[in-house]
Amino acid sequence: MLSRTASELFWMARYPQFSMANLINFFALDSDNPSSIYSCVEMAWNNAHAVRGSLSAEVWECINTTRIQLRTLRQKGVEEVGIDAFFDWVKDRAHLFRGAVFGTLLRNDALCFIRIGTLI
To answer: Residue 70: CB partners within 8 Å, gap ≥ 6?
Structure first.
């Protein structure tokens, strides 16, 4: 017998019926799911805000703009924006962040910490 993961149990409690819209919402925009894209961006913004003085203006601007745009997208919903367009936007923002980090941050412990986070 297979044991259920925490994500699976959480999913079943929130969405009694399976549908593609529920699945996309759960993994992309659900603020109660700590693994959703929305929750990850919120946590990244909170962490960046805490160390704002250690970040370059470009890195902060990327995180802050991503958060603002994601909140707007969340209000519209993925279906209105389009699934492909939404995930293309997510990839673009991730690439912009990576470019800002590697192009503007000092080569110190903060950069090493960010790099470790990308490898986990």
So the answer is: 37, 38, 41
> 3-class DSSP state for residue 108?
coil
Q: Which residue has the tokens 């805490």?
A: 50
**Largest distance between two CA atoms of the chain:** 52
The half-sphere exposure of 108 on its side-chain side, counting CA atoms within 13 A, is 7
Give the predicted TM-score (pTM) of the model: 0.84
Place of tokens 């297979």: 2
pLDDT digit string (tens) for 41-61? 999 999 999 989 888 999 999
- The upper half-sphere exposure of residue 92, i.e. CA atoms within 13 Å in the direction of its Cβ, equals 10
Rounded to a whole number of angstroms, the distance between the first and last alpha carbons of the chain is: 29
d(CA 120, CA 116): 7
